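Researcher: I'd like a structural prediction for the single chain below. Treat it as a standalone chain; there are no partners to consider.
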Amino acid sequence: MKIFKKNDKRLIRSWSMFDWANSAYNLVINSTIFPVYYTTITRNAETGDTVSFFGYEIVNTALSNFALSISYLLMAIGLPFISAYSDAAGKRKFFMKLFTYLGATACMGLFFFKLDTLEWGIFCFAIAAMGYIGGVAFNNSYLPIIATPDQQDRVSAQGFAYGYIGCVTLQIICFVFIFKPEWFGIEDPSFPARFSFLLVGVWWISFSQIPFRYLPRNKPSLGKQELPFFKKVQLEFNTVLSHIKKIEAIKRFLPAYFFYAMGIQTLVIVAAAFGQKELQLGADKLIASILLIQIVAIAGAFIMSLFAKRFGNIKVLLVVVFFWIMICISSYFMSNEYHFYIMAFCVGLLMGGIQSLSRSTYSKLIPADIEDTTSFFSFYDVAEKVAIVIGLFSFGIIEQITHNIRYSALFLAVFFFIGFLLLFRVLKFNKLQIIQ
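Model: Treating it as a single chain, here is the predicted structure.
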């Protein structure tokens, strides 16, 4: 096993490259090209936004939201046990690789997605999400391993910044094929988007090799004990759970994170569909708006890191969550593309900050002598994924009932408001400045 030191710049850069690699999925598949491609091919004059999925008639965007919800739910159920086993058996990097290859391969499978292969496309879409979720969970668990608490806000921000830069880079490459297909003699109008999905998978696997090479393996927490698989999982899971129950700060922070993450992740996922349905923005304007979000998010991550250093993590999170509430309310009244651009700028600034700061805040709450960080972070990731399940299902159900996506967006403000109130409980507990 390689010997490494915390705050080593080369190691931190290598860790950040995983964000560079997998964020391409988050932008191209979750936020821009796939949502636009999907809503375009699943809408027609006869059936409108309704599609037939295994014989069931369902609203197209509700279907994709339900598919994502199921993926997140499955990962939320399985991740704590997979993480427990990875810590017990010393297989953190193994599972990080496994989920990466699973997600990237599924993205490449989307190359074959057309309207007549809708079921295949939804399947690959769901599997890609599971791969992304698993890879991120194991990557997050390295943060307290590679950086000391006083550096974790900055390192977390650097990781997200790498991610935003990386995904924008690939997005621009994809743009060349989408907006200038004649340069390559492309006649099939669906080919540029499908080729972009293939590129995401190749990009994801290729750049992940950097962190795979340099990130350290973890030692088995149960030593060389020859125990059955389920016994190892049970022992490790119970050990971590008992630790968490004793850490009051984590017990207060996770519920707050659960509710505001419900709003953030859902809003980011459905932004493109909202712009296309309600404002009739073209693909070029939608993708440019989402691209703006990623660029602004780079600044947001570092700005929030600096604010946290001066005012404290929880106080900054409170302010940011308040502005998210305003965004949800404003989205209901949005009426033109310029409103959407302004909203995109605000979302980018806040998204980069709150994601980075939430990760580093939780990392600081884990005791310094704890080595089983994968299992600890699995609870953090499960909170986020269950939140997304509820958020997407709520969003989809409200749209399915009302056939008005604006009501769905407005309802997300409720989740942010609850998260805002719960953060006050963390702030009250943090009078001793536990979180800096």
